[in-house]
Amino acid sequence: MSSLKIGDWPSRAVEVIQSQLPLISALYYFVASSIRVALVKGSQQNTLSSSLQNGIICLMAIVLVGYGADAVLLLYATFSQEQHLLEDRLVFALWSLLLWTTLLCGLTSSGHARSLGFPHWGCWVLYTAGEGVLLFCHWASRPRLNSGYLALQLLRIVTLVILCGLAALQSCLAKIIWNNRCCRGEAARPLLQRLHARYNNGYSTITNDSGSNSTNESDDTHAPKEVHCSPGAAETLRGIIPFVWPTGKIRLQVFYVGVGLCLLTSRLFNVLIPMQLGEITDILKTGHVFPWKNIVYYASLRLLNSYGGVGALQTCMWLPLENESYEKVATTAFNKVMDLSCDFHVSKESGKVYDTVFRATGVHHVIQSLLFQIFPMVTDLCLAITILHVMFGPYMGLITASITVLFVWSSGKNLSAQREIRQEYIAARQKDVNILFESTTNWQTATYFNKIPYEKDRYSCAVNHHVKVDTTYKSSFQVMRMMQSFVLALGLLGACFLVAYQISVGKKEVGSFVMSIGYWSQLSNPLQFFVNGFSSVTINLVDVENFIALLNTKPSIKEKPDARQLTVQYGVLRFDDVRFSYNSQQKVLKGVSFETRPGQTLALVGATGSGKTTILKLLFRLYDASQGTIEIDGQNIRDVTLQSLRGNIGVVPQDPALFNDTILNNIRYAKLSATDEEIHDACRAVNLHDQFTALPNGYQTMVGERGVILSGGELQRVAIARVIVQNPQIILLDEATSSVDTVTEAHIQKSLSRVAVGRTMVIVAHRLSTVAKADCILALKDGKIIEQGAHQELVNAGGYYSQLWKQQLLDEHANVAKGTDKSLLKPEAPEFIPQQAAE
Length: 839
Ligand SMILES: Nc1ncnc2c1ncn2[C@@H]1O[C@H](COP(=O)(O)OP(=O)(O)OP(=O)(O)O)[C@@H](O)[C@H]1O
Known about the structure:
By secondary structure, the chain is of the alpha/beta class. The chain has helices at 9-39, 50-80, 83-108, 118-140, 147-183, 191-198, 233-244, 250-286, 292-304, 310-339, 342-347, 350-360, 363-392, 394-441, 443-448, 452-504, 510-552, 612-619, 642-647, 663-668, 676-685, 689-693, 712-726, 742-755, 791-797, 800-818, 820-824, 835-838; strands at 205-206, 225-226, 573-581, 587-595, 601-606, 627-632, 635-636, 649-652, 730-734, 760-764, 776-781, 784-789. It folds into 4 domains: 9-183, no CATH class; 191-552, ABC transporter type 1, transmembrane domain (ABC transporter transmembrane region fold), CATH 1.20.1560; 564-648 and 730-818, P-loop containing nucleotide triphosphate hydrolases (Rossmann fold); 655-727, P-loop containing nucleotide triphosphate hydrolases (Rossmann fold), CATH 3.40.50. Residues 1-6, 110-114, 185-230 and 820-839 have low confidence and may be disordered. Adenosine-5'-triphosphate (ATP) binds next to helix 18. Pfam families: ABC_membrane, ABC_tran.
């Protein structure tokens, strides 16, 4: 292109710099930005103050305008004088214009791009050095530059030097700020905590890692500190690697390599196919030869590059990789949810958890999109731009590069907007699923309160909102596609004009036109894929982010690394000054201390909300006491494994729930190896055997969701039967017989007293007759034990327990005297007036 003389070193240097500087800078920017996104954590990015940022944007705009003015002047000069000498400089000015536009767009677009970093700094330094050398070479070469160009070049160099100075300043400032933060210990905080502090959406709960006792009274709370965590794209990608890379499975790793090779082969075919088409056209143009060999070769290439060739091989190797990742994600997510502690489960929304786990199983889609869409797209793009540049000159290269930059920039803008809409869409869908779960699970409550129409309305509103957000999401996608098609059509027009011009002036053959169209489609196809590819990556990343946040959630109850097996010999329970709160507002246990004797039956009584169930929960380590110690046979329950602790304790909860399975399987759940006979014996002990055998399907009867076909009393008895089958050393009964009649209760008590021999039993009951025979009764009031002793002792003492006992006797007598039915129909029953209204 240039007619510079050999030996004229300044001119040669100018030629090299002009042709290579934009290319090297662009390459550097691309690679550095990718590294930055992948490696640099959000908290480490150096964000500038807005005034400094605006100053930098203005300086960059000056450089940009400088190249623009250069291009206009050179364009004018190209048509009037010394075309061949000026063309190189014109191309340099145009490429630089494009590069600086990209740099400026990168800086002014939203998000992390607003913070400067080494990708920009490097480009500034490269350009400052390049322009400096150019100036020197221009000064040393003949003919000298005219004063207009010189002034423009000087202006650019001064601006570039200032930019480099600012870059150095910012780097120093960032270091000082970072060091200060480190001194304050901020950087030393674990990454998760920093994430928690930074983000505001997720699942995590922070807990004391050591699981040690807090001795600080002010910290006397177990309030789950709900902190939120939303990892960034790079962190999310790093987080999913273990789920997609088949560690230790050589066969699957080979498949990954195979998929990569298939993708590369396919790229090679993409280069060969348009070339072959151009050759066929050129041969046909001569009009004398039938190019059958070329046509067969062309058709074979197309076949090999289709789903009948490389595509089929690629799919065969990808399928096992996809299944492997599905299995890993599904099991990890399920295990994680099951391992989380009670505080997570009481506050979770089942629909949301289900949705998160379900969507996360598509984690392989991220890799699929990256591998099958983004990687081929970037390769195809680079190949197409290079080939078009080499074959049709720098202007064709400029057209393709400009279209690519425009396309990528506009898509990036749209995608970040889409990401927000996607979050909204996920929230709307989770709400919809949640209502579906809640309403169907609580169908009975809705029916009792005649709220079925209300539930229908609630669900319909949620679905309506979901659909609206979905429509917005899809419409934005459509608008983006329209805009991008327009940009592509514009580029195609430019490219066609250029090649047609080159053919018309005899620089190219007709086949070049066909070839250029082939390569153009190779450029536009990946660009269009860019939309789909990045869009699906964006969608899947948002899905996976929630999954990663779920994985980052730490269970509040943890085993110590050196936890031992619990050995229960006597079943002695000891509470020493145990304090506990679920949240900072209310202290539930305020220093509870007691100790049982071996094989003792202990009863907890007291007003509702006094903390009886909480004592059982602490014993079972559903929560950890904020202060004080709990021991079983002298072993602190924090020092033993959860498995051995829970294996030695049998619990009958207040509201037992069953799986939607047969009666037999539900009872066998307590001990999977239990024989049918053991189960029948347990049912005999709770007066259920005859009842179950009388059912049409006997023990094989399905109990419905949560055991809905059983009465409250039957459910409680099944729960007791389970514990009898489990045969643990310690039994906790929380209002276990509150729903059974007194005759059945007496029968169960008899069975339980047989079971209790040599075991420790803790009974929580409101009906005091249930606990009258207990060895020791603890009377609780407002989280404190106010009385303890045997039934008769406490009655004789005439204190709180004795009052409760008298009150119950009075109530029973009154009920017998009045008759329960009559009391229900009492016409003078006072109407419930809400407190506010009453005031
Ligand atoms: N998960 C929880 N989160 C917050 N507060 C809770 C939680 N569970 C229980 N509480 C509160 O702790 C207090 C003690 O509850 P607990 O269940 O121990 O009482 P209780 O004496 O067993 O009552 P009842 O006899 O009615 O079963 C109550 O005020 C209750 O509202």
